[in-house]
Amino acid sequence: MDLNTLTIASTRTAIAECQFTATRLVEEFYKKIKAEDPGIHAYLTLCEDRALAQAQRIDDLAGRGNPLPPLAGVPLGIKDVMVTRGVRTTAGSKILESFVPPYDCTAVARLEAAGAIVLGKMNCDEFAMGSSNENSAYGPVRNPRDLSRVPGGSSGGSAAAVAAGTAVATLGSDTGGSIRQPASFCGVVGLMPTYGRVSRYGLIAFASSLDHIGPITRTVEDAAILLKVIAGRDPMDSTSADVPVPDYQQELSRPIKGLKLGVPKEYFAEGLEQEVRAAVEAAIERLRQAGAEIVPISLPHTAYAIPTYYVIATAEASSNLARYDGVRYGFRAAKPRTLAEMYRNTRDQGFGAEVKRRIMLGTYALSSGYYDAYYLKAQRVRTLIASDFEQAFQKVDAIVTPTAPTAAFKLGEKADDPLAMYLADIYTVTADLAGVPGVSVPCGRTKTGLPIGLQILGRHFDEGTLLRVAQAVSF
Ligand code: GLN
Fold this sequence. Notes:
Number of strands: 11
Distance between the termini: 24 Å
Strand content: 5-15%
Structural class: alpha/beta
Strand order of the largest sheet: 1-3-2-4-6-5-10-11-9-7-8
Radius of gyration: 21 Å
Order of helices and strands: HHEHEHEHEHEEHHEHEHHHHEHHEEH
Largest sheet: 11 strands, mixed
Helix content: 25-40%
Bound molecules: glutamine
């Protein structure tokens, strides 16, 4: 068995046909992780007991000749911002270094109910704040395509493991691009579903109105299979939508002939690396040849997306992160003299520099006197950005753009320049602000072999069309 090329479909078939057992497969994966992951550091925690117990359940089912569930025996990794019962969950932060949650995130519970096996928890930027995975309190992840480069972030571990073949697929989270941008940097498929499509119950909150859970996979078909399992209304999350979940795999077989695809001029402006532009334009040409109609469009408020995102995301983060006080969860600073000192020292020692920067920015944006000027203003611009998309989707069925302005950059290259780092998300934050779905699919390579991603954005709850276009262009 070649772990590097396994897909969800091929794994399930192999187990159903008893080519190997789920237990043997899990053991092979752990062997590979122990041999290869130290150089990449995609995993923070392994949960071998839980994985082997689930593998045994699947093997028992297969042994009795019972019909197998859709993800039977498929080994997966989960970004460490999703809670797992009995398995340490850190969110990449020291403040949660010993936190063992008492319940499972809905998305994880649904994967396991469908037969999937959780191998472990994936490294990520602290509280999902970052674009390079260099903000993890446990050390960075390296890009398996070039170990001197970052895997992107914040779901860097999730994307790197899929690229390295140390998991068949993973879950990531996307608040401003954190599924799509690392997928682009690592040459894998990353899907951010519509806001509300997948329950956020058990996702450690960064910015609640922007947070999404979604799959990172080797193929577009695998993304379709995983989305079907995790999507749908959950009574535990009042923002999860009660919208029927289609059979995404079936959608993939429909041709793209006649689809109208918008190409927004604002996404091809200054700052886009030449090689990325060339690969994306070549991919758009392939879509034209497959019968899509390419339509030039404009999303006029794009230039305001980064500042808008960094006001709203930091404001929500400052509120969400107030709960880490040394009392309720995980880490507590040693020997405080007073209660106030306990809070102060815990947060000072428990949070990293980027998280503190965001809490301060967000607290400032929400403070009385500045609320109208920053937070309220940002909310208004968010509405304008969303209406840009609404208008565009009256004319086109989907929008195609680069996922990120560059291919994977070197470790340390932007680490001291937060503003340069924030620009890595320039093409991805708009979809989070508008709540529309987006997928990144590999569409080419630079001369030195680094992957380049094409981003496809679509109407609310129309992930099916995105996946169809992704399938047609997939490289
Ligand atoms: N890189 C962006 C940030 O730092 C997006 C993060 C994310 O999507 N979780 O906020």
